[in-house]
Write a structure and sequence with these properties.
With 549 residues, the chain is of the alpha/beta class. The protein is built from 22 helices and eight strands. Among the domains are: 85 residues; 30 residues, no CATH class; 90 residues, 3-Layer(aba) Sandwich (Rossmann fold); 113 residues, Alpha Horseshoe (Serine Threonine Protein Phosphatase 5, Tetratricopeptide repeat), CATH 1.25.40.10. β6 and β7 form a beta hairpin. The protein is globular.
């Protein structure tokens, strides 16, 4: 989508009172290029205000008048950003401060002026007027070896590390050397770095100090750290970093459009943009440089650095930042298989719902419908009314012939979405038809069993129909009936495992696998015949007795 189309679409959405969609479209477009970084930050501020108003409204924390005012302010902010974008003003000298209350501002200004005069305020006023404009570097307050150039898109500030060892250690020099090489590799991004000139690097330097210092120097990122020794007298380096202007990374939530096209919706994550890396300095550099390239808009270099990085399994923050950012970078490059593999690796150690949602959407597109439904179920445990995830899971259940579950999800989607949806209605008609057919098939199998209880084909059909209809207890009973008559029947074991798996009973799944192994059936044989990984735990976590038939 080009700029003109984006502007037209955002204006149309705003005109239809679809502010949140307008904000999502706008922020998604603005994050596509580093040249829009200032407008992107302003759009994020507007979206944060809109979401805060929504939250206050839902929780009853604000009156209807206050809520309406907040919504109107957010809308005006979006229109202002769109106007700047249309005019080509990519570095506006403006901020979205709270509007002063009418009638009080002139009196407040008069009072402040009087105080300034009485206190010798002319000097202070004159001095304040000489302060730099927003976005400029306050050279007198920024003790840096060399000021950042005015045309730099991304500024990195490096502080000498605190050294708590007996011998002098300077890991920041290694970072500086590597940074010098790295910034020249960034594609279409003017990036610069500088080192703070501090008298005593070993003075205490807090996270708050880091943010204040970075803001004084107009830095987008600050890196600092500590060198210490552990109990065995081995040197330990703690590399700290903090991206300025936002507290969390903005990553994608994947959704499906028209049942097949993947769309990326920007969303704020729980992953902080500040953390401590306790790995070696070389590994820390790989992660940091990957994050720098990503935030600067250079996806190629972000992928190059992050795919070579090995996240520590016991460090949730670092692993999530690595996995979600690398997955996003792959998606931006259209490399869906690589993104899928990244989510696989991340989810081996951290069951992060947003990663589950994204892998679920990718699984659906790959045709892994059972796995897609399980992934989306984890996300829906946290966001049970997320209509997009519900619709994809319902469609996945339908593709996987889990008919009762499919109907439950799709019906809920129709209740949430009040507007007519022909495609949704078609799916509901399809699932209802399949349910009726499967009920007839199951009834036929039961009639055959009344005539001949040893009819293994009828037991098999009853087990299969019961799974499709969500009657997991009946499916298990039918499978066990087959095993009573044929102790090493592979299909019977598979149907019992699927029934327990769909009901979320992991203990029974493992017990059945062990029984199959005792009967001479290997896990490999079972795994080849099942649509999901036997080792990966199911998404739902409730025993079979809680499953409603």
């Amino acid at each position: 989508m080009d700029k003109a189309q984006l502007i037209s679409e955002v204006k149309e959405l705003l005109g239809n009172a679809e502010t949140e969609k307008a904000l999502n479209r706008l922020t998604d477009f603005l994050r596509s290029s580093p040249k829009y970084k200032e407008l992107h930050h302003l759009a994020l501020q507007a979206r944060a205000r809109f979401r805060k108003a929504q939250q206050d409204e839902i929780q009853g924390l604000a009156s209807s008048e206050q809520t309406k005012l907040s919504y109107n302010q957010a809308t005006r902010q979006v229109l202002q950003v769109v106007q700047w974008l249309e005019e080509g003003n990519l570095n506006p000298d403006a901020s979205f401060a709270e509007e002063a209350k009418p009638g009080r501002w002139p009196w407040a200004m008069g009072a402040i002026a009087l105080i300034l005069i009485l206190a010798g305020g002319w000097y202070l006023w004159n001095k304040a007027s000489q302060q730099p404009e927003p976005g400029e570097v306050a050279l007198s307050d920024c003790l840096i070896d060399e000021p950042f150039p005015a045309n730099s898109d991304f500024n990195i500030l490096l502080r000498p590390f605190q050294n708590l060892t007996k011998e002098e250690q300077k890991p920041h020099l290694i970072i500086a050397s590597k940074l010098d090489e790295f910034v020249t590799k960034l594609n279409n991004v003017k990036c610069d770095f500088g080192t703070l000139d501090v008298k005593n690097p070993n003075d205490f330097f807090s996270n708050a100090d880091a943010e204040t210092t970075a803001q004084k120097c107009n830095a987008n990122l600050i890196i600092w750290g500590i060198v210490d020794v552990d109990k065995s007298d081995s040197i330990v380096v703690q590399t700290k970093y903090k991206f300025i202007k936002q507290d969390t990374f903005e990553v994608y939530k994947l959704e499906l459009k028209d049942g097949s096209e993947i769309i990326k919706v920007p969303t704020l994550s729980i992953i902080p943009t500040a953390s401590t890396i306790t790995q070696s300095i070389i590994e820390s550099i790989q992660l940091l440089f990957g994050l720098i390239a990503y935030e600067a808009g250079d996806r190629d270099n972000a992928i190059e650095m992050l795919k070579a990085y090995e996240p520590p399994p016991n460090d949730t923050t670092t692993s999530l930042a690595w996995g979600m950012v690398l997955g996003d970078a792959y998606l931006d490059k259209g490399q869906e298989d690589e993104a899928w593999e990244t989510y696989n690796q991340l989810l081996k150690t951290h069951d992060y719902p947003l990663a589950r949602n994204n892998r679920g959407v990718l699984n659906y597109k790959k045709g892994n419908y059972e796995e897609a439904a399980e992934d989306l179920s984890v996300f829906l445990e946290i966001k049970p009314d997320n209509v997009e995830a519900l619709e994809i899971r319902g469609s996945a259940y339908l593709k996987a012939d889990q008919l009762k579950k499919a109907r439950t999800d799709l019906q809920k989607v129709r209740e949430i979405r009040t507007a007519p949806n022909p495609e949704l209605n078609r799916k509901l008609e399809e699932v209802d038809k399949k349910i009726r057919e499967e009920e007839q098939t199951k009834a036929s199998a039961e009639a055959q069993l009344e005539a001949n209880p040893n009819n293994l084909a009828a037991w098999d059909q009853k087990a299969l129909s019961s799974i499709k209809l969500g009657d997991y207890k009946e499916a298990v009973k039918a499978g066990e009936a087959i095993l009573q008559r044929d102790t090493d029947n592979v299909d019977a074991f598979i149907k019992i495992i699927k029934a327990y798996r769909n009901a979320g009973d992991t203990a029974k799944v493992e017990e059945t696998i062990r029984r199959a192994e005792a009967a001479g059936i290997s896990r490999r044989q079972l795994g080849e015949a099942l649509p999901f990984n036997l080792i990966q735990r199911p998404a739902t976590r409730f025993p079979i007795k809680q499953e409603k038939n």
